[in-house]
Amino acid sequence: MKVTRRNPDQTHEVTGPKPVGELLAELEINPETVLVIHGGTLVTRDHVLPHEAEVEIRSVISGGAGPARCHGTREDGSRCRETAVIEIAWHNSAFCAACFVEHVRAQVRKAIDGHDMVSYDDTIVVAVSGGKDSLALWDVLLDMGYRVDGFYLGLGIGAYSDRSRAACEAFAAARGATLHVRDLAADFGFDVPTASRDDGRATCGVCGLSKRYAFNRVALEEGYDVMATGHNLDDEASQLLGNLLRWQTAFLSRQDVALPASQPAGNDAPTAGDGGDHSQDRGGSRRGLAKKVKPFYRLGERETAAYCLIKGIDYIVEECPLVAGNTVLRYKDALNGIEAHSPGTKAQFLFGFLDRARDAHFPAEASDAGAELVGCGECDMPTPRPSDGRPAVCAFCRTRRRMLRLVDDGPGAAGRRSA
Predict the structure, then answer these.
(1) Residue 67 — very low, low, confident or very high, per pLDDT cuts 50/70/90?
(2) Are 210 and 185 in contact (CB under 8 A)?
(3) Dihedral angle at the C-alpha atoms of 343, 110, 142, 238, nearest 10 degrees?
(4) Is the pLDDT of residue 281 over 50?
(5) Which of 102, 151, 297, 313 has the CB geometry, 3.0–4.6 Å to 308, for a possible disulfide?
(6) Which residues, other chains included, contact 198 with Cβ-Cβ below 8 Å and sequence gap of 6+?
(7) How far apart are alpha carbons 74 and 64 in whole angstroms?
(8) Using an 8 Å Cβ cutoff, are 257 and 205 in contact?
(9) Per-residue pLDDT, 331
(10) How far, in Å, CA of 213 to CA of 178, rounded?
(11) What whole-number distance in Å separates Cα of residue 137 and Cα of residue 298?
(12) What's the rounded Cα separation, in Å, for the pair 400 and 138?
């Protein structure tokens, strides 16, 4: 059989017939990290692939056991028992396509209700990148009846950014939804590849900071009540592992799946999430931190990838070309190795932290979570008040200064200065 692996792209010729589980074992692939597709359909571990089969093994970047019959529940309360297309080991369940979509919605509903994330009166904006998590979240929230638009930030990463934007625009057009598009270089004078020349901060760090800043800014300027991101169980658990391994108590004090809105001292303007009518604020210059939620924290990357495949959402499969060496990916690999032998470990790890974090006491000197917010002296966005009395400048503006110096010193700089 012909086996095509996606991300990284590889092709294998394998003798069949054989069950999916044996194929993955032969190729030394952790089942928790992939989806197996035969004939355009997801197949489970027990599905037997014929010798002439053409099979796609699609990596979900991170990471099933159970019966091959659906465990979903019908409207009359009976068990579905249709042929399953995906197994989820930590739920000890398997689902057909229709029941799996309901499973995803149920997990999102549990996340929203459990953390008071959003209401049907809220206007929501989802940060979309063209990847599986963000497009799946936008789709789920739309199907659940929420008022939700999308926001895409162009990062200037060549053809990868072009494909990402196209995927977001295609989804918005197909769903008749509003997509706000901004560009990092046009709005702020630098792009993410510029950060690869910066010795002061990792490229992914600059990218993440820029996206958070631009996302909050567009949410406030356009008058949205809530910002939603596609961060999933794997993202949150690996971030938690990294913060604990380094005892980064400042980050631990802020790690949550629902962060409330806040505003700088002396800011009388309404903030997102205050329940007011923000229609008059669209296009204005409100400042503050909009409420931010992560409705996918109960779902793994494998589940969001499967959701996209089942719903026919065309997402960008390949990872960002600048992500190589990202420490979080190593933490994901470590957790997936444990999860393969002890299903549910990632969920217990993250959920246990979230249950206890509100009562945890992190050293005050290591955290700025309770610091007074003031307006940045350069952009007026909120930032903690410096304890040494210096003028307040937010992390993004400090980073932007360095990026603009790199732009000025980059290729063609002499010609630009002489002009």
Answers:
(1) very low
(2) no
(3) -40
(4) no
(5) 313
(6) 206, 402, 403, 406
(7) 22
(8) no
(9) 93
(10) 20
(11) 12
(12) 30
List 4's β-bridge partners, or say none.
Answer: 11, 56
Tell me the whole-structure pTM to 2 decimals.
Answer: 0.80
What's at 156, amino acid-wise?
G
d(CA 339, CA 335): 6
3-state secondary structure string across the chain? CEEEEECCCEEEECCCCEEHHHHHHHCCCCHHHEEEEECCEECCCCCEECCCCEEEEEECCCCCCCCCECCCECCCCCECCCECCEEEHHHCEEECHHHHHHHHHHHHHHHHHHHCCCCCCCEEEEECCCCHHHHHHHHHHHHCCCEEEEEEEECCCHHHHHHHHHHHHHHHHHHCCCEEEEEHHHHHCCCHHHHCCCCCCCHHHHHHHHHHHHHHHHHHHCCCCEEECCCCHHHHHHHHHHHHHCCCHHHHHHCCCEECCECCCCCCCCCCCCCCCCHHHCCCCCCCECEEECCCCCCCHHHHHHHHHHHCCCCCCCCCCCCCCCHHHHHHHHHHHHHHHCCCHHHHHHHHHHHHHCCCCCCHHHCCCCCCEEECCCCCCEEECCCCCCCCCCHHHHHHHHHHHHHHHCCCHHHHHHC
CA distance 395 to 15: 55
Walk me through the domains of the chain, giving residue ranges and CATH numbers: 2-95 (3.10.20.30), 98-319+326-366 (3.40.50.620), 373-410 (no CATH)
- What one-letter code names the amino acid at 324? A
Count CB-CB contacts under 10 A for residue 255. 18
Residues 252, 244: Cα–Cα separation, whole Å: 8
Predicted pLDDT at 395: 92
